[in-house]
Amino acid sequence: MSVPHPAIDRSDASIVVTETRADVAYLSEARADLLLQASAAGRSVVLVSDEVTRLTYPMRQALQDAGGHWVVRELGGTLRDGLDGRRLDSVADTVTRGPLTHADDVAVRYLRPDKPEAVQLIVSQSVRHKATETTVLGGTAELLAEELTGAAPTGWGAHEPAVVRWDRTRLTELSRTRMPNETTVMVAGSVARPLIGTIRTVRTAAGLEETTQLVLGVGGPGSDEARAVVERLPEVFASLATHHMPLFGLVMARTGRRDLTFPSLLEAPPSPLAMVIGPAGVRELGLDVADLADRLGARVLGRPRIPGLYFPLGTFDTPGWPAFDAVLEAIGPERVRAVLGAAGGPIEGVLRAPRP
């Protein structure tokens, strides 16, 4: 990076270090710009924080997407990786280290998680729009928020904190002014109806592709409230297919903090609950709807003439991994990647996710 950046605390030939002492590190304009510039320059960004620091979902995703790292300085001065708990000898060690080979390489503090406070749903859903003046973005986020938390998002913004009052028209106008470039905005809920995430819009040969990624708090662990939300997922996505043209969707569940932030401690890995393959994917993959419904319990979404498929994968009582693997085996992960492209990105994350 040829020009000094205000978010840089120090750097060398390979890494750029930015430090924080805040309780919550969020994707501010400065951090977003630093990640963008460093990535373009082929440099790794290392966020260095204290143990008390937690990351927001957009910050965590942006850091990982840019090939960045999180180093935590423990109370005794020792260092650990904030994402996988590995002991580190130096800040630069997070970039140069080899693969984790032994449990003793993980810091003890990382293995002492906080008690989970809430059930979190992690939802990734892409939809396709016509590239017309009448198209209004943000509908997927609004529908999912209303159906799963009981209220629409409260704010949005180009960066965090997303404090601009929720307004789909203004959100659409921002994306339109940036076309044909890709646009990503932040979206947030309230303390009472916790939600945080991103909406990414990109122009394609088929129109506009809008990918919504959300983390939503749906009640306490084991609560009737959380269970009821999960049981409603099929009808929620049936409603989505009625109002939009879904491409690919994935819902996972995990437990964590009520405020939806990510601490530098071991947390339960997410488990898949449901997968959606929209009409375009069904058509291009040549899927036999009746056969998949019979063999895997898939449900038809949308109109019978151009159907999509909803695959129930798991519940709080039934792990979703076996059903997820069965769906991928029946369809073929490589075929899904080839047809869905960027819309199938969530599959990559799930394939790499740790399993219990």
- Identify low-pLDDT runs: none
Q: List how many beta strands DSSP finds.
A: 18
| Number of helical regions | 12
Q: How are the strands of the largest sheet arranged?
A: 11-10-12-13-14-9-15-16-18-17
Strand content: 25-35%
What radius of gyration results from the CA coordinates?
Answer: 21 Å
Provide the structure class.
Answer: alpha+beta
Helix content: 25-40%
Shape from CA axes? globular
Helix/strand order: EEEHEEHEEEHEHEEHEEEHHEEHHEEHHH
Total domain units: 2
Average pLDDT for all residues: 90
What is the terminal-to-terminal distance? 41 Å
Query: What does the largest sheet look like?
Result: 10 strands, antiparallel
InterPro entries: DUF6177 (IPR046175)
Pfam family, one: DUF6177
Written account of the structure:
By secondary structure, this protein is of the alpha+beta class. The protein has helices spanning 29-40, 57-65, 93-96, 139-149, 168-178, 224-231, 233-243, 279-285, 289-296, 321-331, 333-340, 345-352; strands spanning 10-11, 15-19, 24-25, 44-50, 54-55, 69-73, 79-81, 87-88, 118-129, 155-157, 164-165, 183-188, 195-204, 207-217, 245-256, 271-277, 299-301, 308-312. The protein folds into two domains: 10-111; 118-351, no CATH class. The chain contains twelve helices and 18 strands. The protein has a ten-stranded antiparallel β-sheet with strand order 11-10-12-13-14-9-15-16-18-17, sandwiched between helices. It has a six-stranded mixed β-sheet with strand order 1-2-4-6-7-8. A hairpin with a 6-residue loop joins strand 10 and strand 11. Helix 4 runs antiparallel to helix 7 (233-243). It starts with 9 loop residues before the first strand and ends with a helix.
